[in-house]
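Per your request, structure below.
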């Protein structure tokens, strides 16, 4: 039985992971970390990693993080100090924080993905293939939609898709987030990324390849948070017992 220490356990995604783990054979949430240290389930909750009790650490096989970027440094320090694998599923991380993840992965196994959905990662592969075939003859735009409580824009998933597409293009590609102040034609070496926030939209991503007299679209629609929770739990089971290193969804799907 794999023991999971859940960071951000009282948030929306934390609650989804808790429910999903309870229905999954071979794993159990043994403890939680949340700035609001209220116990909402059958495991103890601690306000910070430094307060996690020794007995919970001993029961932990992997950490799953669905918290806040501001908590990342302390969580990684805790994971490294206790030699615990970590699944980092928190979004909105900056370059410095991503470097923290890479540094931690030199000492412990770390699974990091901007999106824990199998479908989204398949969309990335399809978008890469489309970009390699269509090349620079099609204009590429990405539209992402999320609920009105999401803090980061564009989404980490939109950037993950854009990065995947960029790998296949020959030109020096730039990302265009805002055209309202520009009075000029669209350049051929840009990928437009657009964010929509409203209501309770779980997550919608669409990649548009616009060519001469034809349009190709690849899209993914998330209908609940459960698929992200499932992906994170599968990632935790996957890296438990793995050597130190940085892992992602492609590694798990091989």
């Amino acid at each position: 039985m794999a023991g999971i220490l859940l960071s951000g356990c009282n948030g929306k995604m934390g609650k989804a992971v808790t429910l999903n783990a309870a229905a999954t054979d071979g794993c159990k949430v043994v403890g939680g970390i949340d700035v609001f240290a209220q116990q909402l389930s059958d495991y103890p909750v601690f306000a910070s990693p430094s307060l996690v009790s020794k007995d919970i650490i001993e029961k932990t096989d992997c950490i799953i993080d669905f918290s806040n970027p501001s908590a990342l440094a302390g969580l990684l320090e805790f994971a490294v100090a206790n030699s615990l694998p970590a699944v980092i599923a928190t979004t909105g991380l900056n370059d410095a924080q991503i470097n923290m993840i890479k540094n931690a992965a030199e000492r412990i196994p770390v699974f990091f993905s901007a999106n824990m959905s199998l479908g989204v990662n398949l969309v990335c592969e399809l978008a890469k293939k489309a970009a390699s075939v269509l090349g620079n003859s099609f204009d590429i735009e990405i539209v992402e939609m999320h609920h009105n409580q999401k803090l980061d824009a564009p989404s980490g998933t939109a950037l993950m898709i854009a990065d995947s597409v960029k790998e296949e293009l020959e030109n020096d590609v730039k990302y265009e987030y805002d055209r309202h102040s520009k009075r000029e034609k669209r350049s051929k070496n840009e990928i437009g990324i657009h964010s929509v926030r409203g209501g309770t939209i779980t997550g919608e991503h669409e990649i548009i390849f616009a060519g001469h007299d034809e349009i190709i679209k690849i899209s993914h629609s998330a209908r609940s948070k459960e698929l992200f929770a499932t992906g994170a739990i599968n990632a935790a089971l996957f890296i438990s017992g793995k050597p130190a290193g940085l892992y992602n969804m492609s590694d798990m799907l091989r």
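DSSP finds eight helices and twelve strands in the chain.

Regards,
D.
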